[in-house]
Amino acid sequence: MMPEIGLGESIPPDTAHAVSVSLPTWKANVGYEEGEDWVVNRMTTGYPRFFVHKGIQAFAKDIVDRHGSPGQQAMLFPTPRVANRCQDFILQRVSPELASQVRIIDFTLNKSKELSPVLKKLTSTISAVVYPSEVFPIAKQYWQHTGEGTSSRRAEFCHGLFKDDLLIPAARSRTPPEASQGRPFRGPRRYTRPGSIDGISSPAPSTPKQPSPETPVESLESSRFLEERFGRNLDLSMVERAKSAIRRRIAGAMAHDVDLNNGPLPAMTSNTRGMPNLEESDVYLYPAGMNAIFNAHRALLHAREPAQSINFGFPYVDTLKILQKFGPGCLFYGHASADDLDDLEARLKSGERFLGLFCEFPGNPLLTCPDLTRIRKLADEYDFAVVVDETIGTFANINVLPVADVVVSSLTKIFSGDSNVMGGGLVLNPESKYYRTLKTVMDEIYEDNYWPEDVIFMERNSRDFESRVVRINANSDAICEVLRTHPLIKSIYYPKYNDSKSHYEKVRLPDGGYGGLLSVVFQQKEHAQAFFDALPLAKGPSLGTNFTLASPYVLLAHYQELEWAERFGVDPYLVRVSVGLEETTELQGTFTDALKAAEAVSVTS
């Protein structure tokens, strides 16, 4: 078992780029959501889309101190195009007075300085969206929903260059980079403005303040050391092969270790996706799983006449927000039931048309599996795309690509397992009727923003992905056996035992299991709280870790909308468990002991 982790410490402990944080008691989770100082002030990190990494915060502050004004803040993004989209999101939601104070500063390498070959090959860019402090909540929405913010490793490296005066403001063009590609956003006029592409205003050029002569700058010896350290830790010649290895694993064409030092990888000859025509180039990598979802939606808006999307099933919170806020809107079906499909079919027969249907398989946190066979039939008949998020099921257990047009996944989760790097994947189905159009659009809009260090970590972490999934499947089944017959427990949610099991079985691989995520609801909330507090496990946000990780998920994801979530059968006192690689009997004992702690709590009616 993982050693006890104190409130606010990173999960895993002492990990600079961890993607989870310890909230070890029920009270601490509530305190976090309420913004109570005793919790918030002890947070050293957090899930990266919800908690801006302190290294990124420090870099943003230094940029504002040098190039901004008092009362301003900055949000950091990897490229000018991404910054443009954030700026546009903000401008649509603030007053003209505040909008006039929102600007972008693009940073690029200072070519007047002596630069090493390693540094010249890196895309060492950062774009800062600078805004008045009162705009932060809106900028944070964009950061959280889209997953487009800079990674902490990129920020750490670029911050070092910035301190050495090797990263400086660049002249900003009047025309956003996407405009040069000549493909306008084909949406209704209310979603575009004159001089905009993809709904993004062409920003006026800005002339950021230059650093004063008194600005302290570290020596070139220091910057050379930084470059050399980076070069020693990361041979850039490995990065493209590492990306290739990741893409092939996602395609189901390679699971074993790969030598990144010996030239190109051999040609793909087969895959477990059941798609002979699937090529490595049909797989796209992103810096976060939510960014893959955001870009799947964005690609469909470019490829087809924009229309409402469908969110089918109770979703991860930001998937729904993307569909609601970025485009013509969303029709939401929270139960993913046959009745929901009946209603959708009636709408389609009456003439309503949709851009695409987005669903998770299974869903989070109830592990409900939508009827993909019926969805595919409706999509073919009424012309809408199907986008399936396979993060929880994982492509080691299920194959949803044949019934989807696009498959997305958060690589941050079980694909990595180590909880120390973010990533996302998107796969185009080569047999989809939308394939050629989507492929053309992706050629136009795709930016490879995956930072090289993150790529290397993800490739190394994912080498034993399939063997880890096998063990986690077995451990999850064993924990379910401990929980499902206990009298204190009202419901257990797991694909093997849910009413929607038949839908899961249709896409389960011959040797596939039922995944590593389960949720449990107790008869009484007091028992849920006692059970959670007694678990001697890592407790915090995220899932798919190599170690077992528990959370009162509904509190963390839907604290401001608990009544709304409950209308879809999502209990506010649900405990979600992401099962890890620990020894099976030890895990069973841990959960048995936590149940005993719950039994010891008396509940008065």
From TrEMBL:
<dbReference type="InterPro" id="IPR015424">
    <property type="entry name" value="PyrdxlP-dep_Trfase"/>
</dbReference>
<dbReference type="GO" id="GO:0009086">
    <property type="term" value="P:methionine biosynthetic process"/>
</dbReference>
<feature type="compositionally biased region" description="Pro residues">
    <location>
        <begin position="205"/>
        <end position="214"/>
    </location>
</feature>
<dbReference type="GO" id="GO:0019346">
    <property type="term" value="P:transsulfuration"/>
</dbReference>
<keyword id="KW-0808">Transferase</keyword>
<dbReference type="GO" id="GO:0030170">
    <property type="term" value="F:pyridoxal phosphate binding"/>
</dbReference>
<dbReference type="InterPro" id="IPR051750">
    <property type="entry name" value="Trans-sulfuration_enzymes"/>
</dbReference>
<dbReference type="InterPro" id="IPR015422">
    <property type="entry name" value="PyrdxlP-dep_Trfase_small"/>
</dbReference>
<dbReference type="InterPro" id="IPR054542">
    <property type="entry name" value="Cys_met_metab_PP"/>
</dbReference>
<protein>
    <recommendedName>
        <fullName>cystathionine gamma-synthase</fullName>
        <ecNumber>2.5.1.48</ecNumber>
    </recommendedName>
</protein>
<keyword id="KW-0486">Methionine biosynthesis</keyword>
<dbReference type="InterPro" id="IPR000277">
    <property type="entry name" value="Cys/Met-Metab_PyrdxlP-dep_enz"/>
</dbReference>
<keyword id="KW-0663">Pyridoxal phosphate</keyword>
<comment type="function">
    <text>Catalyzes the formation of L-cystathionine from O-succinyl-L-homoserine (OSHS) and L-cysteine, via a gamma-replacement reaction. In the absence of thiol, catalyzes gamma-elimination to form 2-oxobutanoate, succinate and ammonia.</text>
</comment>
<comment type="similarity">
    <text>Belongs to the trans-sulfuration enzymes family. MET7 subfamily.</text>
</comment>
<dbReference type="GO" id="GO:0003962">
    <property type="term" value="F:cystathionine gamma-synthase activity"/>
</dbReference>
<dbReference type="InterPro" id="IPR015421">
    <property type="entry name" value="PyrdxlP-dep_Trfase_major"/>
</dbReference>
<keyword id="KW-0028">Amino-acid biosynthesis</keyword>
<comment type="pathway">
    <text>Amino-acid biosynthesis; L-methionine biosynthesis via de novo pathway; L-cystathionine from O-succinyl-L-homoserine: step 1/1.</text>
</comment>
<dbReference type="Pfam" id="PF01053">
    <property type="entry name" value="Cys_Met_Meta_PP"/>
</dbReference>
<feature type="region of interest" description="Disordered">
    <location>
        <begin position="169"/>
        <end position="223"/>
    </location>
</feature>
